[in-house]
Amino acid sequence: SRLEPEQSNVSKSPLSPEKASQNPLDDSEEKLSAEESKDRNLPDAQSNLGLWGDGKGEDELSPEEIQMFEQENQRLVGEMNNLFDEVRQIEGKVVEISRLQEIFTEKVLQQETDIDNIHQLVVGATENIKEGNEDIREAIKNNAGFRVWILFFLVMCSFSLLFLDWYDN
Fold first, then answer.
1. Which residue stretches belong to region Disordered (predicted)?
2. pTM of this prediction?
């Protein structure tokens, strides 16, 4: 179907909206040249139709058809190269994402060990604070008992002095 000039213009694959918006001048030039070649080759196409049916002239292509095929081939090669480049870029990005994910996993595991160490330190600090509070309570009790002994000693000395003063009189 691509070998016949009439149908090659009609059956040409439509461009996607992205491609159409990127190359509006190229499209209009291609349409104009295709219409001109269509008008010129209309009698040729009818005569070639008879040749195609007979199996003759399979290898004969007009220069316009050859040029159209070359342009289409160049366009397809360009699209394939663009797709190949995009696939390479995506592949590179996927590899980079994989590498970053491995780093992220490594950092999370490192944080887990750090958190465990901090937890152990906090538990140890809590135990030390409890022991310190108990030592302070014991010290307060011991200090209070010492005060009672000093007070008892002073009271006894006072009574002794009073007794000696009374005895002396």
1. 1-59
2. 0.39
